[in-house]
Amino acid sequence: MAIRLHINIDHVATLRNARGTRYPDPVVAAQLCEQAGADGITAHLREDRRHVRDDDMARLRAAVTTLLNMEMAATDEMVAIALKLRPDVVTLVPERREERTTEGGLDVVGQRVAVAKAVSSLVGAGIKVSLFVAADEAQLRASRELGVQQIELHTGEYCHAPTPSELTKLREGAELAHALGLEVAAGHGLTRHNVLEVAALSEVTELNIGHALIADAVFVGLPQAVRELREAVLRGVARRPRGA
Ligand code: PXP
Rounded to whole angstroms, how far apart are CA atoms 16 and 24? Predict the structure, then answer.
C-alpha cells in the first residue's frame, strides 16, 4: 500500500479512565488493530495523562510488533521518557492543558529553540522524529532546517470545514514538504468519509487516525472498523493521478 495507516488508541484509554477500571485495555486494542491490518500504533502521552499513561506506553512498547508512534510535547520530561521507552517514531505536538484535543500545529518558527533541543536529543538517540505542523510554508521550511525526517500535516481545519481552499492548502503543503525532502504524514479529525481526499494526495505516505475510528468500533467492533477505514483509504489512494 502506498500509504501507512496508523491507529491512535488514546480513546480506548479515555473510556477506561472514565470509570477507573482496568478495561478496556489500550494494549489489547493495539493488538486487535495490528491483527486487522494497521501498519502502526499511535499514542499521545499528555502532560496530564488524561488518556494513555506511562505504564500503558511501556506495555505498548513491549506488545506492538508493527511500529509505535509516540506523540508528545517537546518538553524535557517527555524527551526523557521517550529516550527510555524508545518508540520507533516520536511525533512532537503542541500541548496546552485546557485544550480538548491538540489544537493547531506545532509553532516550529516561534518555539524553535525548544523544538530543536528535543529534536536533537531524539535524533541523536536514533529515534525518527515527525513534527505535527500546519500546512504553512514557514513552518515547513523551519521543520526542514531542524533536520527531521517527517512532518505530519494537521488536517483539523480541513476536517472541520472540508472546503476546496482547505484541501488546496493541504495539497500545497504536502507538495512543498515533499519537495523539501520530508516524508509527509497527515492526521487529526479524519474519518472513513473525509479521509478519501487526504489519501488521494500523492505525497502523503502515512495517516494517523484515532477518535473517529474508536467511535466506529463502538458500533461495529475494532477489527471491522479498521478494515472499513483501510478500504476507505485505499479508495482515496485509487484517486491519485497515474504514476503517483
Ligand atoms: N495526529 C496527531 C499528531 C494528533 O495529535 C492526533 C490526536 O491525538 C491525531 C493524529 C489523531 O487525531 P484524531 O483522534 O482526531 O483522529
Answer: 5
Q: Which of 34, 71, 197, 203 is catalytic?
A: 71
Q: Given the C-alpha cell 515527525, which residue does it identify?
A: 130
Q: Best mutation site among 48, 101, 191, 207 for ligand 1, i.e. most ligand atoms within 8 A of its Cβ?
A: 101
The rounded distance, in Å, linking the Cα atoms of 38 and 58 is 20
The catalytic position among 6, 11, 44, 154 is 44
Q: If phi over 0 gives left and psi between -120 and 50 gives alpha, with beta otherwise, what is residue 221?
A: left
pLDDT band at 102 (very low <50, low <70, confident <90, very high): low
Spell out a b/e string for 146-170, using b for 16 or more CB atoms within 10 Å of the CB, else e.
bebebbbbbbbbbbeeeeeebbebb
In short, whether 158's Cβ falls inside 6 Å of ligand 1 is: no
List of domains in the chain: 4-235 (3.20.20.70)
Q: What whole-number distance in Å separates Cα of residue 190 and Cα of residue 212?
A: 7
pLDDT tens digit sequence for 131-148:
999 999 999 999 999 999
pTM: 0.96
